[in-house]
Amino acid sequence: MNALRHTLGNSASRLTALILLLTTLFTPAVFASTAVASQTLDLTATAAGYVALVVFVLAYVLVMGEEVLHLRKSKPVLVAAGIIWGIIGFIYMQHGMSALSEAAFKHNLLEYAELLLFLLVAMTYINAMEERKLFDALRAWMVGRGFSLRTVFWLTGFMAFFISPIADNLTTALLMCAVVMKVGGDNKKFIGLACINIVIAANAGGAFSPFGDITTLMVWQKGVVHFEQFIDLFIPSLVNYLVPAAIMNCFIKNTVQHTEEEAVIMKRGARRVVLLFLLTIATAVCTHTFLGLPPVLGMMTGLGFLQFFGFYLRKSFSKAVLKAREKAERENNIKRLEQLGNVVPFDVFSRIARAEWDTLLFFYGVVLCVGGLGFMGYLSLVSEAMYTHWDTTYANIAVGVLSAIVDNIPVMFAVLTMNPDMGLGQWLLVTLTAGVGGSLLSIGSAAGVALMGQARGIYTFAAHLKWTPVIALGYIASILVHLWLNAALF
Predict the structure, then answer these.
(1) pLDDT reported for residue 474
(2) N or C: the chain end with fewer CB closer than 10 Å?
(3) Model confidence over 254-266: pLDDT tens digits?
C-alpha cells in the first residue's frame, strides 16, 4: 500500500510538473510579439510553435513509413491535428481571443468538408462502376486480345493517361496494373517497367483535369484556375508521359505473352452508371460556372441521381429474382436456388462504405495540420522565403520536386494557403509540377504507393529509382513546354 501511495505520489508530482511546464511554455508572457494587424498572434518564434512543428514532422515521418510500419497514414495526422489546434486554442484562450481561433478552425473545417463530400461522391461512383464489373470487363477485353508486350505497355499507359482525368489516378493505376500483371505473367522486367509507365501516365493525366487528382481539385475549388483553363496543361502533361515512355519502350521485347482468356459480363446498368457520372461532373461544373456556387453542390446532386438509379435497379432486380426463383422451384433446381440466395442487389450506401476512408481522414489531418501551422504564421515565413527571395518559376518547380518526397496534398494545400501573388501561368505551372512531380519517386504519389503493394517485390522503390533520371527528363521537358506553349499566360 505504501509503495502504491509512493507511485501515485510520484505520478501526481510528474503530472503537476508537466502542467506547470506547459503553462510556462504557453503563457502569454513568453510571447515577444502581440497581435499583429490582422489580430492574430505570430507564434513562429515561440515554444508553442516549435512544439507544433515537431509534432507535425513526427506525424509525417510515420506517414512516410506507412509501408514499413503497416500503420495507416490517417492515424498520426489525425492526432497531430488535434494537438496543434489544442495548442492554438489554449494560447488564444489565454489572450481572450478564442473567437479568432474558433473562426480559423471552422474555416479550415469548411474547406475540408467541401472537398470531403466532393471526393466521397466521386469515390462512390467509381466503386459503383467496379461493382457493376465495368473495370473487370475492360481488363478482360485487353487481356483477351493477344497484344504484344510492347503494345500492352503503350495501351495501358495511354489508357491510364486518358482515364485518370475522369476517374482518379489511384483507381486508374490499380486497374492498369492488374492488366499488366495478368499479361506479363512471370516476366518481372516487363511488369516493373509497365508499372513505372502507368504511375507516370496516371499522374500526368490527372494533372490537366480538376477530377484527376486531389491537388487539381483543390486548385479548382479555390478558384485560382477555372475549369476550362486546365486544358492548357494537356500538352505539357502528355510530354511528361511520352518522354520517359519512349525511352523505356526500347527496353521491352516486342513478344506476345500467351495468357488465358477471361470471360466477364458487366452487370445490368453499368453503362448507365458511367453516363450518370458524366452527368454529375457536368452538373458540378455548371453549378460552379453559371451559379457561382461550390462544385460540391453539383456533386451531391449527382449522388442523388445515383440513388434514384439504385432504387430503380433494386425494384427491377427484385422482380427478376422473384421470377427466377419461381422458375427454379418449379424445376426443383436446388443449385440455382442457392445461387439466387447469394445474389445481392445494388446498394448505394454499400458503395459509400467502400470509399477510401483512410485517404479521406488523412486529408482531414493534413488540411487541419497545415491550416494550424499557417494560422501560427509559418506559411507566411515559407511564402516570404520562396515567393519573394526566389524566382517564382523556380519556387514552383521546387514544389514539384518536394512533392516527390512529401505527399503532394499538404504541399499544394500549403501553397494555396500561402496564396502567393501569381498569374495564371504560374498557378498552372505549380499545378503541373505538384501533379507530375510525384512520379520522380515511387513514394511520391498515391498511385506509386498502391502499385508497390499490388506488384509487391516486382515494382519497388529501388526499381523505380533506377529510372528517376529518365522520369526527370520528362519532368523538365513538360515544364519547358508549358513555359513556351503558354507563355502568353505569364
Answers:
(1) 96
(2) N
(3) 887 666 667 778 8
d(CA 234, CA 238): 6
Spatial distance between the Cα atoms of 439 and 52, rounded to a whole number of angstroms: 30
* CA distances for 287 relative to 221, 301, 339, 490, angstroms: 12, 10, 44, 28
pTM here is 0.73
Q: Residue 12: pLDDT band by 50, 70, 90 thresholds?
A: very low
Q: Is 381 helix (H, G, I), strand (E, B) or coil?
A: helix
Q: How confident is the model at residue 246 (pLDDT cuts 50, 70, 90)?
A: very high
| Residue 195 and residue 157 in contact, taking contact as beta carbons nearer than 8 Å | no
Rounded distance between C-alpha atoms, residue 394 and residue 265, angstroms: 51
Could you give the CA distance from residue 175 to residue 192 in angstroms, rounded to a whole number? 15
Residues 6+ apart with CB under 8 A from 289: 226, 227
Tell the burial category of 43 from Cβ atoms under 10 Å away from its Cβ (0-12, 13-18, 19+).
buried
For residue 419, the one-letter residue type is N
Q: Is residue 478 scored above 90 in pLDDT?
A: yes
- Residue 180 makes CB contacts below 8 A (sequence gap 6+) with 152, 153, 156, 190, 191, 194, 195, 198
Task: Report how far residue 217's alpha carbon sits from residue 209's, in angstroms, rounded to the nearest whole number.
Answer: 8
Detail the DSSP E strand segments found in 150-289. none
Classified as helix, coil or strand, 60 is helix
The gap from C-alpha 59 to its chain's centroid, in whole angstroms, comes to 18
CA distance 284 to 305: 13
